[in-house]
Amino acid sequence: MIPLSIRRQALNEGVAPAICIPLVGRSAEAVQGELAVVLEKQPDLIEWRVDFFGEITDTAAVVALARKLREAAAATPIIFTCRSVKEGGERHGRDETAIVELLQTVCASRCVDFIDYELCNVWENVARLRDASRAQGVQLIMSYHNFQCTPDAEFLGAKFAEAERLGADVAKVAVMPKSAADVLTVLSATQRASETIAIPLISMAMGGIGAVSRIVGGVFGSAVTFAVGKSASAPGQIAIEELRTALAVVRQASVSM
Questions:
Q1: Catalytic one among 92, 159, 172, 230?
Q2: Distance between CA 89 and CA 161 in Å, rounded?
Q3: Which residues, in sequence order, are CB contacts of 177 under 8 Å at separation 6+?
């Protein structure tokens, strides 16, 4: 596994992925309240899902809140994500051009450590965000989400490879399994990609049946797992306390082998 790093400091090691907790509040007060609760649980990363934010169309309000989150989070890295509706995000009032401009502005504010942008978007927008994030020292996560099914391992491997080819710093795949075999497909695709792709990978199978992938994903090459601090942002996320206990068991077992 290639670890996720910030300022040359790895956020995870061995088979243990870094733990990320999402913030999904609708108001500035709600987001800040979530952050206060989450920070007490000491996650490795925080993700602000700004598509949930009621003032998303007000760029000044978004940046002002991002600055407050940065100050409160201190050294804890922040991922800034505006998940698209077609990949499971909340409906909001910005079109794709406005989303790209928002992400560029947030990069320029240097209040976040990562931005997340979907692979399904047009190349011109990807390139604009690649340039903007790189210029400001912000890492770009390029992601693929499928809330309907789990494509085959070859397709998922191609998504990881596409993210690397487009200049991503991190490649992410999240899919919905219909069976235990689908969960194995995700894990297998991640393991194969980890042998050839030179950037950190994030993968998960969502929903209840996919919860195991959030626990053992690090064994197969996933550098990050998402947990619940106060509210979940996707189905199948596990409370951070329970997830941390499970990861400790996996880590100890791998050491004793």
A1: 172
A2: 24
A3: 150, 183, 185, 186, 205, 206, 207, 209, 210
Q: What residues have CB less than 8 Å from 175, skipping those under 6 apart?
A: 145, 146, 149, 150, 151, 156, 182, 186, 204, 205, 206
Say if residue 62's pLDDT is above 90: yes
Distance CA 204, CA 59 (A): 31
- pLDDT band at 234; cut points 50, 70, 90: low
Distance CA 5, CA 170 (A): 10
Which among 41, 86, 92, 145 is annotated as catalytic?
Answer: 145
CATH superfamily for 5-256 is Aldolase class I (3.20.20.70)
Structure tokens at 225: 């797992």
Task: State both tokens at 238.
Answer: 């596990």
Respond yes or no: is residue 92 known to be catalytic: no
Q: Is the dihedral of CA 74, 221, 118, 86 positive or negative?
A: negative
Q: Per-domain residue ranges for the chain? A: 5-256
Does the annotation mark 159 as catalytic?
Answer: no
Task: Report the percent of the chain where pLDDT is more than 90.
Answer: 82
Write down the pLDDT at residue 101. 97
Dist CA 25 CA 230 (whole Å):
10
Please give the full DSSP string across 207-251, using - where no structure is assigned.
TTTTHHHHHHGGGGTB-EEEEESSS-SSTT-EEHHHHHHHHHHHH
The encoded tokens of residue 15 equal 């088979």
Q: How many CB atoms lie within 10 A of CB 243?
A: 21
Contact 31, 48 (CB under 8 A): yes
